[in-house]
């Protein structure tokens, strides 16, 4: 053990329940675009996926991990899912990978993940789509 400070603990997932929220790719995005009258182009789909990933990261995971004192887990989560470094072929799956990672973290977080996937994401992404044109801005446009 170091003279000053604590020995680093391993990051351990504690969840025992299997994921029971639907996967997002591809149906969630196609349905949301259609419901809000947006063209389901590859570019719009990727833009919506990027927006979803940012919402999952900043609107849910960040606050949950900070409230639970999981600062190292949050740092590692940010590194793993940094959209600026993720390969383009992986982008469509990043929100689902994020949800999988959070789901595995702890069974106690599952009710909040369910609410995020089933209510909050459709609601907030729907408002975003309603206030956007037919071409959604991608991360590169920001």
State mean pLDDT (0 to 100 scale): 91
Q: What fraction strand?
A: under 5%
Q: What is the 3D shape?
A: globular
End-to-end Cα distance: 45 Å
Total beta strand runs: 0
Largest sheet: none
Short descriptors:
5 helices
Descriptive notes:
It contains 5 helices and no strands. The longest helix is centred in the middle third of the chain and has 26 residues, at 42-67. The protein has helices spanning 27-35, 42-67, 71-80, 94-105, 110-130. The N and C termini lie far apart (45 Å). With 142 residues, the chain is mainly α.
Brief digest:
By secondary structure, the protein is mainly alpha-helical. It has five helices and no strands. It has helices at residues 27-35, 42-67, 71-80, 94-105, 110-130.
How are the secondary structure elements laid out?
Layout: H1 27-35, H2 42-67, H3 71-80, H4 94-105, H5 110-130
Helix pairs in contact: 2-3, 2-4, 2-5
